[in-house]
Amino acid sequence: MDELPIRSGDDVVRVRQSVRVAAADNGLSLVDQTKLVTAASELARNTLVHGGGGVARVEVVKSANGRNGVKLYFTDEGPGIADLDLALTDGWSTGAGLGLGLSGARRLVDEFELTSLPGAGTSVVVVKWSR
Amino acid sequence: MRLQEDLADELSATGARGVIIDITAVEIVDSFIGRMLTTIGSVSRLFDAETVIVGMRPAVAITLTELGLSLNGVRTAMNAEKGLEILNGRS
């Protein structure tokens, strides 16, 4: 399992590269690799911009029926998200962004779990399975 | 962004009417890169130039659609040749 710091834009690039390698090595199709890497890019940038930096973890997982998958964790100790439903709404943004980061990333993966408490940081866990 | 400044300088200096951005080598377009592309389109329009993005990989196109990103204000074409056709068709 790789644990990667997210402290700069360069770190976001390294997270993308690491996710790409894990996805390719575990039998995800090119389209699924691209979806997962794109989701990782959105989430890593959220960690950096909204969470004030944090950590990404890349894990290889196997489902009960034997399918390979890649599981990603993004955690920060930033201000957290007050209204999770609102944060997952298309077009809603606190910053200068397009408001597609979280909602868009959720559409690109098979499993998506967002946990956050105001003042206690944010954690996003996603999984993409091979087909 | 360095690219946007260089582009604005170049458009101002040359009076170019079109901008082609080839993203053949780009493996992913997330909302950050998407916003950069639409900003380039907006800047170019201020100089009366149209922007055409060419060479988007199929996997990138599928992902962009699912992400919900529409590249407002820029055209897209299969390749540089088709992009030039679009720009030359402008009166």
Offer a few descriptive terms.
heterodimer, A: 131 residues, alpha+beta, Heat Shock Protein 90, five-stranded antiparallel beta sheet, 4 helices, 37% helix, B: 91 residues, alpha/beta, Transcription Regulator spoIIAA, 3 strands, 53% helix
Task: Please outline the major beta sheet of chain B.
Answer: 3 strands, parallel
User: Which segments of chain B are poorly predicted (pLDDT under 50) over 5 or more consecutive residues?
Assistant: none
Largest sheet of chain A: 5 strands, antiparallel
Number of DSSP helical runs of chain B: 4
The class by helix and strand makeup of chain A works out as: alpha+beta
Q: How many angstroms does the end-to-end distance of chain B come to?
A: 31 Å
Describe the overall structure.
The complex is a heterodimer of chains A (131) and B (91). Chain A is built from 4 helices and 5 strands. Chain A is of the alpha+beta class and 131 residues long. Chain A has one domain: Heat Shock Protein 90 (2-Layer Sandwich). In chain A, strands 1-2-3-5-4 form a 5-stranded antiparallel β-sheet, with helices on one face. In chain A, β4 and β5 form a beta hairpin. In chain A, α1 runs antiparallel to α2 and α2 packs antiparallel against α4. The model of chain A has no long low-confidence stretch (mean pLDDT 91). With 91 residues, chain B is of the alpha/beta class. Chain B has a single domain, classed as 2-Layer Sandwich (Transcription Regulator spoIIAA), CATH 3.30.750.24. In chain B, strands 1-2-3 form a 3-stranded parallel β-sheet, sandwiched between helices. In chain B, α3 links the parallel β2 and β3. The longest helix of chain B has 16 residues. The chains are: A alpha+beta (131), B alpha/beta (91). Chains A and B meet through α2 and α4 of A and α2 and α3 of B.
